[in-house]
Automatic annotation (TrEMBL):
Coiled coil: none annotated. This is Isopentenyl-diphosphate delta-isomerase. GO terms for cellular component: cytoplasm. Gene3D superfamilies: Aldolase class I. InterPro entries: Aldolase_TIM (IPR013785), FMN-dep_DH (IPR000262), IPdP_isomerase (IPR011179).
Length: 344
């Protein structure tokens, strides 16, 4: 139970640090700022007819937006998850939850993840750290995480830098490819490989696809730095300094997308890591992603109020629609094919 309490306290710290401190990368960027859409002054379109809906894992979404994995396991996390789930249901968005390890270790906090009743039709992703497969976790724990959420897929998050900086982090990543391969074969839902803000390279994407991963969330550099988050809560001066040294470590989100699409043109691809508005989402779609994932904007809005969440989604959808309108493209597939995004 001591371990469960430590995990729960860490989750509470993560929320507090992300909401109150500056945890953004200092110099690293997403790379999206290097891309610009070609404006179309005469789109020959009625804006009302533009379609930003999409499908992912055979579920229809009203927009290519993923409410990225954030939290769980505390009272505040429960409030945030329930508000996010209600928004995901109302607007037909995809949603991932934070690591469910806290609920596996302490079932008393499992209700902070029980959001299927609130979002019966939403595309929901369960979430566990892949490294836990080297620390007693296996198919049983993964199934518990999936069942708890009644999830459509399981995210296995990959976070070596975060674990290296985290006080008493789990740092044995040896042999995980084989264990992930076994899970991909055994689990009843697709497995998504996700970084946490340092990016997935072309080479690693190829390996993950070869072992059976069904989708990739690049979670590139340029947004929240989990090295800075862990530095902000570290008690040990070495860990604190380590987090600051590596605050900007990683592969920019835009580079992850373009590199992975060169070798895997059809793998379902989620772009997260530093996306802050609908223009960012549209750029990732034009680069080849299928969904754009946002965490911090949704966390801040959910912490504020339900009204703030409604406003955020309305803004994001309006921004994405405006990109299509002002590039003369009718839907997301046309946006991908049109060549209207140029690198400068």
């Amino acid at each position: 139970m001591d371990g469960a309490i430590e995990t729960q306290n860490r989750k509470a710290d993560h929320l507090k640090v992300c909401l109150e401190d500056d945890v953004q990368c200092r110099e690293a960027t997403t790379g999206l700022e290097n891309y610009h859409f070609t404006h179309c002054c005469l789109p020959e379109l009625d804006r009302a007819e533009i379609d930003i809906s999409t499908r992912f894992f055979n579920k229809c979404l009203s927009a290519p937006i993923l409410i990225s994995s954030m939290t769980g396991g505390t009272d505040l996390a429960k409030t945030i998850n329930y508000r996010l789930a209600a928004i995901a249901q109302e607007y037909r968005l995809a949603m991932g939850v934070g690591s469910q390890r806290v609920a596996i270790e302490n079932p008393a906090v499992a209700d902070s993840f029980k959001i299927r009743s609130i979002a019966p039709d939403a595309l929901l992703f369960a979430n566990l750290g892949a490294v836990q497969l080297n620390y007693t976790y296996g198919i049983e724990q993964c199934l518990r995480a999936i069942d708890l959420l009644e999830a459509d897929a399981l995210i296995l998050h990959l976070n070596p830098l975060q674990e290296a900086v985290q006080t008493r982090g789990d740092q044995n990543f040896r042999g995980l490819l084989d264990k992930i391969a076994q899970l991909c074969e055994a689990l009843p839902v697709p497995v998504i490989a996700k970084e946490v803000g340092n990016g997935i390279s072309q080479k690693m994407a190829e390996k993950l696809i070869q072992i059976g991963v069904s989708a990739i969330d690049v979670a590139g550099a340029g947004g929240t730095s989990w090295a800075k988050v862990e530095s902000g809560r570290a008690q040990d001066p070495i860990q604190r300094r380590l987090g600051l040294t590596f605050a900007d470590w990683g592969i920019p989100t835009a580079d992850c997308i373009t590199q992975i699409r060169q070798v895997a043109p059809t793998i379902p691809l989620i772009a997260s890591g530093g996306l802050r508005n609908g223009l960012d989402v549209a750029k990732t779609i034009a680069l080849g992603a299928d969904l754009g994932g946002l965490a911090l904007p949704f966390l801040q809005a959910a912490n504020d109020s339900e009204a703030a969440l409604h406003l955020l989604v309305e803004i994001l959808e309006a921004e994405i629609t405006t990109v299509l309108f002002c590039t003369g493209t009718r839907d997301l597939n046309e946006l991908k094919r049109s060549g209207v995004l140029e690198k400068h």
